[in-house]
TrEMBL record:
InterPro entries (alphabetical): L-rhamnose_isomerase (IPR050337), Xyl_isomerase-like_sf (IPR036237), Xyl_isomerase-like_TIM-brl (IPR013022)
Keywords: Isomerase, Manganese, Metal-binding
Residues in Xylose isomerase-like TIM barrel domain copies: 101-285
Alphabetized SUPFAM superfamilies for the sequence: Xylose isomerase-like
Keyword Metal-binding set for record: yes
Name used for this protein in its record: TIM barrel protein
Length: 424
């Protein structure tokens, strides 16, 4: 479904007066708003192809209707999101769920929608129908060399698809691990995984990156072979300059200090990318910022501070992606909410008085340091996030416009009620 620009313009006209009043107040509260707005305009968050349909749990899946049936329709959906918010200008594909049969045509379609291809994702956490060996006991870690080779070959295949699409990074998330004590020799599992990753790394083009994603538990519940940032960092260091750690917010043990982790990974020059989601208990994959918005702000606070300390480009030097999936919302509305929450946290982090915070830290003024951070978190930045959208040609209120235009009803009429987009 294409969204004509006059519809956005008329939506914006109807909200403009209220917006300008709020923006004027926000400008009086926050210094340097122009610079913040420009950074927000530049900041893009990749949408994963698997989040466009209703996610499943282990217990069931409740399709919402009108879900994209093909890669082309997935690109159209991300294009629609990008038209609404001008902050979702990239799509991240999952192979084999999204194998492009005609990469040139897919590239052209994405370009029409103003989209780039973000990291491509391999999948050795489930068996495919045509595959020779099973990953039941792991892929890159497997004790059986033929199974490791199959998983390595798959990752190299994913890189090839990525090259055809103009992507420049591969994300490897492994479900490898063990469910019971004694099942695995930890060192052998590590060594096998390292050697497998080295073969994949050797197939990376020079200007590519490989992101090694970690996860504390699930689907294996006793050990995960890339279980935390220390293990990921260890692999990334041994692999080389093109290898980085990827942080998925839901992949930590409860109460882990994720802001400290990203700060240190940045310092070590090994933070490569980010998967945004939110959670209350484990890897719940809920909407970014829906449960712990203060944590999201604190993470962005460290990201901004750490990237600035190294002179990095916020928009380009790290991979930013949503990785969420659940059952109870319209997935497109949900993604609009996630992007908005990320933008708000980023804007809040940009508004932190860095000089004052550094002074407070150097003087052990704990109260003042807390005041500075909480003041930034509690100041409403939604008007400057909306202003960034307005300047980029997007909607002042994307979710409201999505509903006004009855997008979901249109998609159901076009595609039917019982479509399935996820490969799970
Ligand atoms: Mn992830």
């Amino acid at each position: 479904m294409l969204l004509e620009s006059y519809k956005i313009a008329s939506h914006n006209d109807s909200l403009l007066k209220g917006h300008e009043n709020k923006l004027a107040f926000t400008r009086s509260e926050i210094a340097g708003t122009e610079e913040i707005i420009q950074k927000l305009v530049d900041f893009q968050i990749a949408i994963p192809s698997w989040a466009l349909g209703t996610g499943g749990t282990r217990f069931g899946r409740f399709a919402g209707g009108g879900e994209p049936r093909t890669l082309e329709e997935k690109i159209e959906d991300v294009g629609l999101l990008h038209t609404l918010n001008k902050a979702s200008g990239a799509i991240s594909l999952h192979i084999p769920w999204d194998i492009p049969t005609d990469p040139k045509a897919i590239r052209a379609l994405a370009a029409q929608h103003g989209l780039k291809f973000d990291a491509v994702n391999s999948n050795t956490f489930q068996d495919q129908a045509d595959q020779e060996h099973t990953y039941k006991f792991g892929s890159l870690q497997n004790v059986n060399k033929a199974i490791r080779k199959q998983a390595i070959d798959h990752n190299i295949e994913v890189i090839k698809h990525g090259i055809e699409l103009g992507s420049d990074s591969l994300t490897v998330w492994l479900s490898d691990g063990s469910c019971f004590p004694g099942q695995l020799n930890f060192r052998k599992a590590y060594q096998n995984t390292l050697e497998s990753l080295q073969e994949i790394y050797a197939a990376l083009p020079d200007d590519w990156k490989i992101f090694v994603e970690y996860k504390a538990f699930e689907p294996n519940f006793y050990s995960m072979t890339v279980g935390d940032w220390g293990q990921s960092l260890s692999y990334a260091r041994k692999l080389g300059d093109k290898a980085y750690t990827l942080v998925d917010l839901g992949h930590h043990l409860p109460n882990a200090n994720i802001e400290q982790i990203v700060s240190l990974l940045l310092m070590e020059e090994k933070l490569g990318g980010f998967h945004f989601n939110d959670s209350k208990y484990g890897d719940d994959d809920l909407t970014a910022g829906s449960v712990k918005p203060y944590q999201l702000f604190l993470i962005f606070n460290e990201l901004v501070e750490g990237m600035d300390a190294r002179g990095m480009n916020h928009a380009k030097d790290l991979g930013w992606m949503i990785d969420a999936s659940h059952n109870v919302k319209d997935p497109l509305e949900d993604l609009l909410q996630s992007v908005e929450a990320i933008m708000i946290a980023y804007a809040q982090a940009l508004s932190v008085d860095r000089k004052a915070l550094e002074d407070a830290q150097e003087n052990n003024d704990v109260v003042r340091a807390q005041e500075i951070l909480q003041n930034a978190f509690r100041t409403d930045v939604r008007a400057i996030v909306a202003e960034a959208r307005l300047r980029a040609g997007a909607a002042l209120n994307p979710v409201a416009l999505y509903r006004e235009l009855k997008v979901r009803e249109n998609l159901i009429a076009e595609r039917g009620l019982k479509t399935v987009s996820t490969g799970l």
